[in-house]
Amino acid sequence: MVEKCSLASAALRRQTHWAPHGNVVSANGLSISITGLAPWLQIGSRLRLDPPGAEPIAAEVVGFADGLATALAFGPLEGIATGTAASLAPSATLAVDESWLGRVLDPLGRPIDGRGPLRPGPRPWPVRAAAPSAGQRARLGPRIDLGVRALDAFATCRRGQRLGLFAASGVGKSTLLAMLAGGAGCDVVVLALVGERGRELREFLEDDLGPEGLARSVVVCATSDSPPLMRREAAYAAMAIAEHFAEAGRQVLLLMDSVTRFAMALREIGLAGGEPPATRGYTPGVFAELPRLLERAGPRAAGKPGAITGLFTVLVEGDDHDEPVADAVRGILDGHVVLDRGIGERGRYPAIDILRSLSRTVPGCLAPEEAALMRQARGILALHAEMADLVRLGAYRAGADPAVDAAIRLAPRIEAMLAQGKGEEKGGTVEAAFAALAMALEDADAA
Question: Is the peptide bond before 299 cis (omega within 30 degrees of 0)?
Fold first, then answer.
Protein backbone atom coordinates (compact mmCIF):
# COMPACT_ATOMS: atom_id res chain seq x y z
CA MET A 1 0.00 0.00 0.00
CA VAL A 2 2.84 2.39 0.89
CA GLU A 3 4.53 1.64 -2.45
CA LYS A 4 1.33 2.41 -4.34
CA CYS A 5 0.99 5.74 -2.54
CA SER A 6 4.58 6.66 -3.41
CA LEU A 7 4.00 5.81 -7.08
CA ALA A 8 0.82 7.88 -7.10
CA SER A 9 2.64 10.82 -5.52
CA ALA A 10 5.43 10.59 -8.11
CA ALA A 11 2.87 10.49 -10.90
CA LEU A 12 1.18 13.59 -9.53
CA ARG A 13 4.47 15.48 -9.43
CA ARG A 14 5.04 14.74 -13.12
CA GLN A 15 1.80 16.45 -14.06
CA THR A 16 2.68 19.92 -15.31
CA HIS A 17 -0.65 21.35 -14.14
CA TRP A 18 -0.25 20.15 -10.56
CA ALA A 19 1.67 22.02 -7.86
CA PRO A 20 1.50 21.59 -4.10
CA HIS A 21 -0.06 24.38 -2.06
CA GLY A 22 0.00 25.24 1.61
CA ASN A 23 -1.17 27.88 4.05
CA VAL A 24 0.31 30.17 6.65
CA VAL A 25 -0.61 28.97 10.13
CA SER A 26 1.34 31.45 12.26
CA ALA A 27 3.82 34.33 12.15
CA ASN A 28 6.27 35.18 14.89
CA GLY A 29 8.61 38.12 14.47
CA LEU A 30 10.37 37.63 11.14
CA SER A 31 9.42 33.98 10.66
CA ILE A 32 6.31 32.44 9.12
CA SER A 33 5.10 28.87 9.74
CA ILE A 34 3.55 27.11 6.76
CA THR A 35 1.63 23.84 6.65
CA GLY A 36 0.91 21.50 3.75
CA LEU A 37 4.20 21.96 1.89
CA ALA A 38 6.87 20.38 4.09
CA PRO A 39 7.20 17.10 2.08
CA TRP A 40 8.11 19.06 -1.06
CA LEU A 41 10.48 21.58 0.50
CA GLN A 42 14.10 21.81 1.55
CA ILE A 43 16.24 24.48 3.15
CA GLY A 44 16.56 27.32 0.65
CA SER A 45 13.37 26.50 -1.31
CA ARG A 46 11.61 29.56 -2.66
CA LEU A 47 7.94 30.19 -1.94
CA ARG A 48 5.26 32.56 -3.13
CA LEU A 49 2.86 33.98 -0.57
CA ASP A 50 -0.44 35.42 -1.83
CA PRO A 51 -2.06 37.64 0.80
CA PRO A 52 -5.62 38.56 -0.20
CA GLY A 53 -5.88 41.89 -1.93
CA ALA A 54 -2.12 42.49 -1.98
CA GLU A 55 0.87 41.82 -4.20
CA PRO A 56 2.53 38.38 -3.92
CA ILE A 57 5.49 38.17 -1.55
CA ALA A 58 8.56 36.01 -2.16
CA ALA A 59 9.82 33.93 0.75
CA GLU A 60 12.47 31.33 1.50
CA VAL A 61 12.46 28.25 3.69
CA VAL A 62 14.97 28.48 6.55
CA GLY A 63 13.93 25.54 8.76
CA PHE A 64 11.43 22.86 9.74
CA ALA A 65 9.73 22.04 13.04
CA ASP A 66 6.82 19.74 13.97
CA GLY A 67 5.83 19.14 10.37
CA LEU A 68 5.76 22.84 9.55
CA ALA A 69 8.09 24.78 7.31
CA THR A 70 9.61 27.98 8.71
CA ALA A 71 10.09 30.71 6.10
CA LEU A 72 11.28 34.30 5.96
CA ALA A 73 9.91 36.86 3.51
CA PHE A 74 11.82 39.07 1.08
CA GLY A 75 9.43 41.92 1.82
CA PRO A 76 7.30 43.38 4.60
CA LEU A 77 4.82 41.03 6.24
CA GLU A 78 1.90 43.46 6.11
CA GLY A 79 -1.15 41.62 4.81
CA ILE A 80 0.06 38.16 5.82
CA ALA A 81 -2.61 36.40 7.91
CA THR A 82 -3.54 32.91 9.04
CA GLY A 83 -4.64 30.99 5.98
CA THR A 84 -2.62 33.03 3.45
CA ALA A 85 -1.92 30.77 0.47
CA ALA A 86 1.65 29.57 -0.07
CA SER A 87 3.04 27.77 -3.13
CA LEU A 88 6.37 26.64 -4.51
CA ALA A 89 8.33 29.12 -6.61
CA PRO A 90 11.25 28.54 -9.02
CA SER A 91 14.81 28.48 -7.68
CA ALA A 92 16.62 31.81 -7.62
CA THR A 93 18.35 32.65 -10.91
CA LEU A 94 19.44 35.83 -12.70
CA ALA A 95 19.40 36.02 -16.50
CA VAL A 96 22.35 38.44 -16.72
CA ASP A 97 22.83 40.39 -19.95
CA GLU A 98 25.50 42.73 -21.29
CA SER A 99 22.94 45.54 -21.20
CA TRP A 100 22.95 45.37 -17.39
CA LEU A 101 26.18 47.38 -17.35
CA GLY A 102 25.42 50.85 -16.04
CA ARG A 103 22.30 49.69 -14.22
CA VAL A 104 21.28 49.59 -10.56
CA LEU A 105 19.12 46.71 -9.35
CA ASP A 106 17.83 45.08 -6.21
CA PRO A 107 18.89 41.58 -5.09
CA LEU A 108 15.96 39.97 -6.93
CA GLY A 109 17.11 41.42 -10.25
CA ARG A 110 14.57 44.24 -10.43
CA PRO A 111 15.78 47.69 -11.61
CA ILE A 112 15.68 50.50 -9.06
CA ASP A 113 17.26 53.27 -11.17
CA GLY A 114 14.07 54.36 -12.95
CA ARG A 115 15.45 53.51 -16.39
CA GLY A 116 12.96 50.84 -17.35
CA PRO A 117 13.07 47.04 -17.24
CA LEU A 118 16.24 44.99 -17.56
CA ARG A 119 16.65 42.91 -20.69
CA PRO A 120 17.09 39.25 -19.72
CA GLY A 121 20.06 37.33 -21.04
CA PRO A 122 19.82 33.96 -22.79
CA ARG A 123 21.07 31.88 -19.85
CA PRO A 124 19.72 32.00 -16.29
CA TRP A 125 22.58 31.98 -13.77
CA PRO A 126 22.00 30.37 -10.33
CA VAL A 127 22.24 32.81 -7.44
CA ARG A 128 23.44 30.07 -5.09
CA ALA A 129 26.29 28.02 -6.54
CA ALA A 130 29.35 26.13 -5.41
CA ALA A 131 32.87 27.53 -5.79
CA PRO A 132 35.02 26.09 -8.58
CA SER A 133 36.75 22.85 -7.63
CA ALA A 134 40.00 23.55 -5.81
CA GLY A 135 41.83 20.86 -7.79
CA GLN A 136 40.73 22.25 -11.17
CA ARG A 137 40.88 25.95 -10.44
CA ALA A 138 43.35 28.13 -12.32
CA ARG A 139 46.17 29.86 -10.47
CA LEU A 140 46.18 33.59 -9.83
CA GLY A 141 46.93 35.73 -12.86
CA PRO A 142 49.36 38.62 -13.32
CA ARG A 143 49.20 41.64 -11.08
CA ILE A 144 46.35 44.05 -11.55
CA ASP A 145 46.52 47.83 -11.50
CA LEU A 146 44.11 49.08 -8.83
CA GLY A 147 44.73 52.76 -9.49
CA VAL A 148 45.44 53.54 -5.81
CA ARG A 149 49.14 54.13 -5.14
CA ALA A 150 49.07 52.90 -1.55
CA LEU A 151 47.58 49.58 -2.64
CA ASP A 152 49.60 49.17 -5.83
CA ALA A 153 52.92 49.72 -4.02
CA PHE A 154 52.30 48.13 -0.60
CA ALA A 155 49.50 45.59 -1.11
CA THR A 156 49.97 44.65 -4.75
CA CYS A 157 47.08 42.54 -5.99
CA ARG A 158 46.90 39.79 -8.63
CA ARG A 159 44.00 38.88 -10.89
CA GLY A 160 41.68 36.56 -9.02
CA GLN A 161 42.95 37.61 -5.60
CA ARG A 162 40.60 38.45 -2.72
CA LEU A 163 41.47 41.32 -0.38
CA GLY A 164 39.65 42.54 2.72
CA LEU A 165 39.32 46.25 3.49
CA PHE A 166 39.00 46.52 7.28
CA ALA A 167 37.76 49.78 8.75
CA ALA A 168 35.41 51.37 11.24
CA SER A 169 32.58 53.58 10.03
CA GLY A 170 33.41 56.98 8.57
CA VAL A 171 37.04 56.27 7.60
CA GLY A 172 36.61 56.54 3.83
CA LYS A 173 35.64 53.05 2.67
CA SER A 174 33.06 54.28 0.16
CA THR A 175 35.45 56.79 -1.38
CA LEU A 176 38.14 54.13 -1.67
CA LEU A 177 35.67 51.77 -3.36
CA ALA A 178 34.76 54.52 -5.82
CA MET A 179 38.45 55.07 -6.61
CA LEU A 180 38.83 51.35 -7.27
CA ALA A 181 35.70 51.16 -9.41
CA GLY A 182 36.86 54.07 -11.56
CA GLY A 183 40.59 53.35 -11.79
CA ALA A 184 41.22 49.60 -11.58
CA GLY A 185 42.42 47.74 -14.66
CA CYS A 186 39.43 45.47 -15.27
CA ASP A 187 36.66 44.93 -17.82
CA VAL A 188 33.61 44.88 -15.54
CA VAL A 189 32.92 46.14 -12.01
CA VAL A 190 30.20 44.51 -9.91
CA LEU A 191 29.37 46.51 -6.80
CA ALA A 192 27.32 45.06 -3.94
CA LEU A 193 25.97 47.56 -1.42
CA VAL A 194 24.70 45.48 1.49
CA GLY A 195 22.74 47.28 4.21
CA GLU A 196 23.70 50.77 3.02
CA ARG A 197 21.86 53.94 4.05
CA GLY A 198 19.16 54.66 1.50
CA ARG A 199 20.00 58.34 1.14
CA GLU A 200 23.63 57.54 0.24
CA LEU A 201 22.95 55.47 -2.88
CA ARG A 202 22.46 58.35 -5.30
CA GLU A 203 25.26 60.35 -3.67
CA PHE A 204 27.61 57.41 -4.15
CA LEU A 205 26.53 56.80 -7.75
CA GLU A 206 26.59 60.43 -8.87
CA ASP A 207 29.38 61.96 -6.77
CA ASP A 208 31.75 59.08 -5.98
CA LEU A 209 31.30 56.58 -8.83
CA GLY A 210 30.36 59.07 -11.55
CA PRO A 211 29.04 58.37 -15.06
CA GLU A 212 32.33 56.87 -16.26
CA GLY A 213 32.60 54.41 -13.38
CA LEU A 214 28.92 53.49 -13.57
CA ALA A 215 29.12 52.79 -17.31
CA ARG A 216 31.18 49.66 -16.75
CA SER A 217 29.49 48.63 -13.51
CA VAL A 218 26.51 46.66 -12.30
CA VAL A 219 25.32 47.85 -8.89
CA VAL A 220 23.27 45.62 -6.58
CA CYS A 221 21.80 47.45 -3.59
CA ALA A 222 19.82 46.41 -0.51
CA THR A 223 19.39 49.27 1.94
CA SER A 224 19.54 48.99 5.72
CA ASP A 225 15.75 48.92 6.03
CA SER A 226 15.47 45.86 3.78
CA PRO A 227 14.51 42.50 5.31
CA PRO A 228 17.49 40.30 6.23
CA LEU A 229 16.88 37.98 3.28
CA MET A 230 17.25 40.91 0.87
CA ARG A 231 20.46 42.07 2.51
CA ARG A 232 21.88 38.56 2.36
CA GLU A 233 20.68 38.10 -1.21
CA ALA A 234 22.50 41.27 -2.34
CA ALA A 235 25.83 39.53 -1.77
CA TYR A 236 24.74 36.35 -3.56
CA ALA A 237 23.23 38.23 -6.49
CA ALA A 238 26.37 40.32 -6.99
CA MET A 239 28.51 37.17 -6.87
CA ALA A 240 26.27 35.47 -9.45
CA ILE A 241 26.51 38.49 -11.80
CA ALA A 242 30.31 38.52 -11.39
CA GLU A 243 30.45 34.79 -12.16
CA HIS A 244 28.42 35.31 -15.34
CA PHE A 245 30.87 37.87 -16.71
CA ALA A 246 33.93 35.90 -15.56
CA GLU A 247 32.66 32.75 -17.29
CA ALA A 248 32.37 34.84 -20.47
CA GLY A 249 36.13 35.52 -20.22
CA ARG A 250 35.96 39.00 -18.66
CA GLN A 251 38.20 40.34 -15.92
CA VAL A 252 35.77 41.25 -13.15
CA LEU A 253 36.36 43.44 -10.11
CA LEU A 254 33.85 42.58 -7.38
CA LEU A 255 33.48 45.22 -4.66
CA MET A 256 31.30 44.33 -1.67
CA ASP A 257 30.38 46.75 1.11
CA SER A 258 30.14 45.14 3.53
CA VAL A 259 30.70 41.54 4.53
CA THR A 260 29.87 42.50 8.12
CA ARG A 261 26.33 43.54 7.21
CA PHE A 262 26.00 40.32 5.20
CA ALA A 263 26.98 38.41 8.35
CA MET A 264 24.50 40.43 10.43
CA ALA A 265 21.74 39.48 7.99
CA LEU A 266 22.77 35.82 8.28
CA ARG A 267 22.61 36.15 12.06
CA GLU A 268 19.04 37.48 11.91
CA ILE A 269 18.03 34.67 9.55
CA GLY A 270 19.67 32.02 11.71
CA LEU A 271 18.06 33.25 14.91
CA ALA A 272 14.64 33.39 13.23
CA GLY A 273 15.15 29.82 12.02
CA GLY A 274 15.94 28.56 15.52
CA GLU A 275 19.77 28.48 15.46
CA PRO A 276 21.37 29.08 18.85
CA PRO A 277 23.47 32.24 19.27
CA ALA A 278 27.19 31.62 19.72
CA THR A 279 30.13 34.02 19.47
CA ARG A 280 28.88 37.56 20.20
CA GLY A 281 25.39 36.49 19.18
CA TYR A 282 26.42 35.20 15.75
CA THR A 283 24.97 31.81 14.94
CA PRO A 284 27.22 28.92 13.80
CA GLY A 285 25.70 29.10 10.32
CA VAL A 286 27.25 32.55 9.78
CA PHE A 287 30.79 31.18 9.95
CA ALA A 288 29.86 28.25 7.71
CA GLU A 289 28.32 30.56 5.09
CA LEU A 290 31.13 33.13 4.90
CA PRO A 291 33.63 30.82 3.13
CA ARG A 292 30.88 29.53 0.81
CA LEU A 293 30.37 33.06 -0.45
CA LEU A 294 33.97 34.30 -0.47
CA GLU A 295 35.43 31.18 -2.09
CA ARG A 296 33.26 31.75 -5.16
CA ALA A 297 35.46 34.73 -6.06
CA GLY A 298 38.83 34.10 -7.68
CA PRO A 299 40.07 32.41 -10.85
CA ARG A 300 37.69 30.19 -12.78
CA ALA A 301 38.45 26.65 -13.93
CA ALA A 302 41.87 26.06 -15.50
CA GLY A 303 41.94 27.11 -19.14
CA LYS A 304 39.28 29.81 -18.76
CA PRO A 305 40.61 33.37 -19.04
CA GLY A 306 38.06 35.08 -16.81
CA ALA A 307 38.58 35.78 -13.12
CA ILE A 308 36.88 37.58 -10.23
CA THR A 309 39.17 39.87 -8.25
CA GLY A 310 37.33 40.59 -5.02
CA LEU A 311 37.70 43.43 -2.53
CA PHE A 312 35.41 43.00 0.46
CA THR A 313 34.97 45.64 3.13
CA VAL A 314 34.68 44.56 6.75
CA LEU A 315 33.10 47.01 9.18
CA VAL A 316 35.02 46.49 12.43
CA GLU A 317 32.84 47.34 15.40
CA GLY A 318 34.46 49.74 17.85
CA ASP A 319 37.78 49.55 15.94
CA ASP A 320 38.14 45.96 17.21
CA HIS A 321 39.98 44.17 14.40
CA ASP A 322 39.80 40.86 16.29
CA GLU A 323 36.00 40.72 16.49
CA PRO A 324 34.53 37.41 15.17
CA VAL A 325 33.56 38.40 11.61
CA ALA A 326 36.79 40.31 10.96
CA ASP A 327 38.84 37.43 12.33
CA ALA A 328 36.99 34.85 10.23
CA VAL A 329 37.18 36.88 7.01
CA ARG A 330 40.88 37.65 7.49
CA GLY A 331 41.57 33.91 7.62
CA ILE A 332 39.65 33.23 4.39
CA LEU A 333 40.96 36.02 2.15
CA ASP A 334 44.35 36.47 0.47
CA GLY A 335 45.29 39.63 2.33
CA HIS A 336 43.96 42.51 4.36
CA VAL A 337 44.08 46.29 4.09
CA VAL A 338 43.49 48.30 7.26
CA LEU A 339 42.02 51.79 7.18
CA ASP A 340 42.89 53.74 10.31
CA ARG A 341 40.80 56.55 11.75
CA GLY A 342 43.88 58.32 13.16
CA ILE A 343 45.46 58.56 9.70
CA GLY A 344 42.26 60.07 8.33
CA GLU A 345 42.12 62.55 11.18
CA ARG A 346 45.61 63.70 10.21
CA GLY A 347 44.23 64.46 6.73
CA ARG A 348 45.87 61.70 4.67
CA TYR A 349 43.45 59.84 2.41
CA PRO A 350 43.04 57.05 1.60
CA ALA A 351 43.68 56.37 5.29
CA ILE A 352 45.46 53.04 4.69
CA ASP A 353 47.74 51.86 7.48
CA ILE A 354 50.65 50.51 5.46
CA LEU A 355 52.30 48.72 8.38
CA ARG A 356 49.15 46.73 9.25
CA SER A 357 48.19 45.89 5.67
CA LEU A 358 49.36 42.80 3.83
CA SER A 359 48.87 41.11 0.47
CA ARG A 360 49.80 37.43 0.64
CA THR A 361 50.56 37.29 -3.09
CA VAL A 362 53.21 40.04 -3.11
CA PRO A 363 56.21 37.66 -3.31
CA GLY A 364 54.89 36.26 -6.60
CA CYS A 365 54.19 39.52 -8.42
CA LEU A 366 56.98 42.00 -7.60
CA ALA A 367 60.35 42.37 -9.28
CA PRO A 368 63.34 42.12 -6.89
CA GLU A 369 64.01 45.85 -7.05
CA GLU A 370 60.34 46.62 -6.34
CA ALA A 371 60.28 44.26 -3.37
CA ALA A 372 63.45 45.86 -2.01
CA LEU A 373 61.96 49.33 -2.39
CA MET A 374 58.79 48.29 -0.58
CA ARG A 375 60.77 46.74 2.30
CA GLN A 376 62.89 49.89 2.59
CA ALA A 377 59.82 52.13 2.74
CA ARG A 378 58.10 49.88 5.29
CA GLY A 379 61.22 49.93 7.45
CA ILE A 380 61.36 53.72 7.32
CA LEU A 381 57.70 54.08 8.28
CA ALA A 382 58.03 51.53 11.10
CA LEU A 383 61.07 53.26 12.58
CA HIS A 384 59.40 56.66 12.27
CA ALA A 385 56.29 55.37 14.09
CA GLU A 386 58.47 53.87 16.82
CA MET A 387 60.35 57.13 17.44
CA ALA A 388 57.44 59.55 16.86
CA ASP A 389 56.65 60.09 20.55
CA LEU A 390 60.28 60.71 21.47
CA VAL A 391 60.67 63.22 18.65
CA ARG A 392 57.46 64.99 19.68
CA LEU A 393 58.61 65.27 23.28
CA GLY A 394 62.03 66.54 22.24
CA ALA A 395 63.74 63.53 23.81
CA TYR A 396 65.55 62.65 20.58
CA ARG A 397 68.51 64.75 19.50
CA ALA A 398 69.23 64.99 15.76
CA GLY A 399 72.43 63.17 14.81
CA ALA A 400 72.18 60.58 17.57
CA ASP A 401 71.18 57.84 15.11
CA PRO A 402 71.59 58.18 11.30
CA ALA A 403 68.78 55.68 10.65
CA VAL A 404 66.34 57.68 12.79
CA ASP A 405 67.47 60.91 11.13
CA ALA A 406 66.77 59.35 7.74
CA ALA A 407 63.36 58.10 8.87
CA ILE A 408 62.39 61.56 10.16
CA ARG A 409 63.42 63.02 6.80
CA LEU A 410 61.91 60.35 4.54
CA ALA A 411 58.64 59.39 6.25
CA PRO A 412 56.81 62.65 5.37
CA ARG A 413 57.77 62.19 1.72
CA ILE A 414 56.42 58.65 1.70
CA GLU A 415 53.23 59.88 3.38
CA ALA A 416 52.86 62.54 0.67
CA MET A 417 53.26 59.86 -2.00
CA LEU A 418 50.53 57.76 -0.33
CA ALA A 419 48.03 60.64 -0.27
CA GLN A 420 45.71 60.52 -3.27
CA GLY A 421 42.52 62.43 -3.90
CA LYS A 422 39.44 61.01 -5.58
CA GLY A 423 39.93 61.20 -9.35
CA GLU A 424 43.66 61.90 -9.03
CA GLU A 425 45.76 59.82 -11.43
CA LYS A 426 42.81 57.69 -12.42
CA GLY A 427 44.05 54.53 -14.11
CA GLY A 428 47.42 54.62 -12.35
CA THR A 429 49.59 51.53 -12.65
CA VAL A 430 51.75 49.48 -10.28
CA GLU A 431 54.83 50.66 -12.18
CA ALA A 432 53.81 54.31 -11.70
CA ALA A 433 53.26 53.74 -7.97
CA PHE A 434 56.74 52.29 -7.50
CA ALA A 435 58.25 55.06 -9.63
CA ALA A 436 56.61 57.65 -7.33
CA LEU A 437 57.91 55.81 -4.27
CA ALA A 438 61.44 55.60 -5.68
CA MET A 439 61.36 59.30 -6.58
CA ALA A 440 60.33 60.26 -3.05
CA LEU A 441 63.19 58.30 -1.55
CA GLU A 442 65.76 59.50 -4.09
CA ASP A 443 64.76 63.14 -3.70
CA ALA A 444 65.09 62.82 0.03
CA ASP A 445 68.53 61.23 -0.23
CA ALA A 446 69.65 64.01 -2.52
CA ALA A 447 68.44 66.57 -0.02
Answer: no
